[in-house]
Amino acid sequence: MSEALAFDLAAYLEAERGRVNGALERAVARLRSTLPEPLAPAAAHAVLTGGKRLRPILCVAAQRACGEGVVDASYDMAAALEFIHAYSLMHDDLPCMDDADLRRGRPTPHKIFGEIPSMEAGAALIPAAALQAWWAAGELGCSPERGAAVVAELMKAAGGGGMVGGQVLDLVGEGQAHDAARLDSLHRMKTGALLCASLRVGGLAVGADEQSLDALGRYGRAVGLAFQIADDILDATSDAESLGKNPSDASLDKSTYVSLYGLDEARKRARAQVTVAKAALGEAGIDSAALISLADFIVERNR
Amino acid sequence: MSEALAFDLAAYLEAERGRVNGALERAVARLRSTLPEPLAPAAAHAVLTGGKRLRPILCVAAQRACGEGVVDASYDMAAALEFIHAYSLMHDDLPCMDDADLRRGRPTPHKIFGEIPSMEAGAALIPAAALQAWWAAGELGCSPERGAAVVAELMKAAGGGGMVGGQVLDLVGEGQAHDAARLDSLHRMKTGALLCASLRVGGLAVGADEQSLDALGRYGRAVGLAFQIADDILDATSDAESLGKNPSDASLDKSTYVSLYGLDEARKRARAQVTVAKAALGEAGIDSAALISLADFIVERNR
After folding, report:
1. A36 strand-pairing partners
2. Does the CA dihedral A188-A190-A191-A194 come out positive or negative?
3. Which listed residue, A66, A230, B57, B285, has the most CB atoms within 10 A of its CB?
């Protein structure tokens, strides 16, 4: 690829994060008007505090790849994915779960707002995400059928077969070694389900055909697994300061890809998933420099 | 009313409970296939253990009142309301919330399955309810637009402006007296939002017009408030054995309608809400012996 054609991922990510954060501000303003006092600030803190915004960025990238340009409402749609992600982080960090003090370099919601408001604000983000996606689908001019498909996709990922199940399997696995198959299935649920949904929601929102939706789903699952392996590698090689959170899984004595396979083999497996992800796009004729660069970014990021 | 024309509420409730329980068994069977091991039994326990099934019964009654007869799928639709109700009870009973050992005369889910699976199975019931309602809407032949309206109604009630907000306001209020306005608004959120949604979901599912939907909503809010006042009266006058749960609010030093107004005035206020509920139906020309009897039942029940 010549220099002139090279995709400037850093500039792309910065611009996308700006528009995603704008959409999240709008979404949280609407949310605040429906949440009572003890919940609103906890939800706002969780949604608005930093973060890579990877899920919304992937959602918008899928809309770009399969549709005809994006508008503000495309980012409003993507905000629904971040609501679900924020819910999962809030619950993950609770005292009865990972009991984390720090997330994205800042105190976790329960440290500031208390355990109950954090737990309930987290749960309230699930229906809020459904309503946000439904509203954005209307703004995008989706048919009710398409809007409902978007909401169903989101709710499936948020449900027990998705991330929540992965979180619980994860905790149940503390102090016991996971075998490789269990680790894969755990991470597919915990991270993969929502990354996969981020892509498919984007595709559904712009009316992508079945073949493209299938390819976006396979890309999302592969990238989700690569993401989790990369997380394990980061946990094994970083300290809390550069990571912005407590390196937790290894210290909690859970199996990780690194403990199971060693650093080199884990890196190899992450890269193999990136290859799978790119191949899925290629097979469906989805030509997106952003999605290709994002897949690389996911294993090469340093936090 | 002559004897021959009198509505046999006891027989009606028994028959309806049977059909609702059948729909809940079907819904839980579907749910089990999507939930991982630690969550599935907790969710099943919460959904299937006893209960008045008031919300689904009201949902079906609204479908009957505004539609043309009911079928199994009408009860499948109603099951989604019980999912949300079960979620709220699971979270209400958690150690960090009310820390209740007993619910419907049986141990609470967290006593059997642990705190984390109960919290997460509870949260997983929210997206499961959305998917259940969407599926049932399809079975009922609803248009995607109508199906989506049903799901949106359900998610609004499940969100922070609905029950969750009420729960948290309730806990924040422990040990401090609520004034009457705050108590009303708390109970409207905590109980009223889901009862109101039960009625409106039923109406939406059968394509009721705006005037009827509005009347069903007003009926639901009034009946919800009457229900909560009746709960306070029951808490003040019953013991755990006849109630099937720990009489909790008074012992936790929260304001109740009884502590605020005394028994007689509380009873009067409950009956006034029943009158409001019936008037709402009358104004919209909704002729339903079941809904009228159910409104009476809600303040006259003994558990």
Report:
1. none
2. positive
3. B57
Please tell me the pTM assigned to this model: 0.83
Q: Is the pLDDT of residue B18 over 50?
A: yes
Looking at the predicted structure, is the pLDDT value of residue A191 above 80?
no
Are B274 and B300 a contacting pair, CB within 8 Å? no
Taking contacts as CB-CB distances below 8 angstroms, the residues of chain A near B178 are none
- Look at residues B86, B75, B79 and name the one whose alpha carbon lies nearest to residue B44: B86
Q: Which two tokens stand for residue A30?
A: 């609407």
What is the ipTM, given to two decimal places? 0.75
Of the two residues B237 and A200, the one the predictor is more confident about is A200
What are the pLDDT digits (tens) for A105-149? Answer: 888 888 888 888 888 888 889 889 998 999 999 999 999 889 989
Q: What are the chain B neighbours of A128 within 8 Å (beta carbons)?
A: 155, 159-160
Euclidean distance between CA atoms A153 and A24, whole angstroms: 20
Nearest to A126 among B96, B119, B127 (CB): B127
What mean pLDDT, rounded, does chain A reach? 85
Residues of A in contact with B120 (CB under 8 A): 91, 160, 164, 167-168
pLDDT at position A176 over 90:
no
Q: What is the CATH number of the domain that holds B248?
A: 1.10.600.10
Give how many domains chain B has, as a whole number: 1
Domain with B125 in it: 3-300
Average pLDDT over residues A10-24: 97
- Exposure b/e, B252-261, CB count within 10 A at least 16 = b: bebbbbbbbb
Residue B163 in contact with residue B157, Cβ under 8 Å? yes
Helix axes A72-93, A40-48, angle to 10 degrees: 110
- Return the top range by mean pLDDT from A168-182, B117-131, B186-200, B216-230: B216-230
d(CA A252, CA A269): 23
